[in-house]
Structures
1.
Amino acid sequence: MTLLRGFKQTIVERVKRDPDFAKALLDEAATLFLSGEPDAARLILRDLVNATVGFESLAELTQKPSKSLHRMLSPKGNPSMDNLAAIFGAVQSWLKVTFDVRVIETA
């Protein structure tokens, strides 16, 4: 008998036991947005929100309706830069991390 665990459940459990994994997910979401892959970034950010702060608390922190935040981070979401900055800021605060942005020169 094969036991299967859902992907989302695996993410939630890993984030709860490994703060560095949560930070790596936030870093990956930011990197994907900056690299022009917003669809993948939104999905990672949504999973991270579900595993950490939760959408109800995120709504309080960002002063945005929870339902709107769900839509913004859905596969077809299209958050404004202001909303995206608010979401990243709230998750950063929740995880107690900061971003260290570096520009890499390409030849």
Note: The mean pLDDT is 89.
2.
Amino acid sequence: MSKSAALREAQLALLYGRIKDENGKSDLRPPTFWAPYVLMGN
């Protein structure tokens, strides 16, 4: 899997609620959690 594909999968998992916090209670779907990540380099 390429780096860009891995970042995309992680962002989509957060967006669709497939990833939870350590308590399993927090909602990580808002963009404040998944939007700030950027891929730099190759």
Note: The mean pLDDT is 83.
3.
Amino acid sequence: MALTTTVPLLISQQFDSEVVLANYQNGVYYNLDGSAAQVWLGLKANRTVEGIASALAAATGGDAASITPQVQAFVDSMLAEGFIAEGAADADVDARQA
């Protein structure tokens, strides 16, 4: 499933190891740090859940098979909250806008 972080009324900005999401639809700001920020940045880079889990496992010395379900659960919650959407990956969106 292709996912995009290009969602109407949502902007994101990275500050060092943190990512701030601003949802202009509901006026709420979200702060992601640690592995949550890494998942967001992985999605922005068009990585799959498995690819993100592998990168987290390599960075932490963990097991990708154990981390993958946790990454998937976080991605599912971001889908439910409207932070990301199913559809064209971000690189494809950027290419069409160029």
Note: The chain has a mean pLDDT of 86.
4.
Amino acid sequence: MTYEETLEYLYQRLPIFQRQGKAALKPDLHNTIALLDALGNPEKKIRSIHVAGTNGKGTSCHAIASILQSAGYKVGLYTSPHLKRFTERIKINGEQMGEPEVVSFVSRIRPVIEKINPSFFEVTVAMAFYHFAKEAVDIAVVETGLGGRLDSTNVLVPEVSLITNIGLDHQEILGETLGEIAVEKAGIIKAHVPVVIGTFQPEIIKVFESQAIAKNTTLNVKASRYRITSDAIDGSDRNISITDGRDSLEIRLDLKANYYLKNLPGIFEVIRTLETKEWKILPEHIQAGLSNVTGNTGLKGRFQQMGASPLVIADVSHNQEGIEDLVSQIKGESYRKLHIVFGTVQDKNVERILGIFPPDATFYFTHSDVPRSVRANDLLETGKKLRLNCDSYENVNVAKKAALSNAGINDLILITGSTFVIAELEEL
């Protein structure tokens, strides 16, 4: 098969959450284990960092990988979903897995796929671990897909685990309350593997404490000791000072999103934990890594500027808490009028999310090609119900073009609501 035929096989043959939602999920790790067994158990041949959470896990993974790369290590990075190319999911030192390697892997594992019918995500996880082991990475930074306890990545026994912020998202799968969702995320906690809690949330900390006790491991909540001060954003960068009361670092961040600042304490504590395990990471490696996350890893879509006059910002925030943080930052920007290009998927509370945005904005509703997307006309109906100034458009690029034609040079255009909508931006 060619690379294009291989991808078509994966997309058509395997259940995929992005297209089918909950129906694509497998209720246990049996398929992942079977795939990895057939590959000689590559997950046992790599050292790793495992990251779960509702918001912040993707940026945390990229930042940690960037720091480790700057320290001279060969670093695997597995994240999902991809924005433009399938191979974005699997990188080593920022380089995407090659197309020939994808074809070779699928050809090798196809008999097992045909036998056990795994999900798309299960196959991509096995592909990543096989690639990392084959290429002998020093360490792999691995993001969970959904939840943690039953996530395919949860076969790893990592050097350290990180659990970022817990919020209300995917409730139809993970549970209705923060406590129920936290139980699923806490499922990545392993015996004798230290776990860092990136955001101290008093209402759910007991969930993590009880799981750590059950697994006889150390629960690290020291991320709460860090204090961050931030200067005004200068061009494409942001200057910050971060201290834990003992040491302090001055860093010029290349990521401008305010919500990223919430992730930094957890990122720092993961690095501190690795240092206790004799990984050699110096302050200058942290500074270099955090100043060039996008360059080192290819991260996109996090408060990414796509135009200046008018200012155009694209951001993958897609749940209530993420949108709240994004809107808070937007309100701090200087602009005359706000234009919002928005699309989302079917498991979100659309009315609640739309209620977060300034009601005097002009809305350009759209949808992606993903079947789970809420159709633009349905969003328009909801927008009119909320008495918003709105219209609908067939795709994000048409919506963006309409916003640009309506906006003045001092206006702001925000494109957000769904990772899949951002992924279809032609200039991203």
Note: Residues 228 and 242 are 4 Å apart (CA to CA).
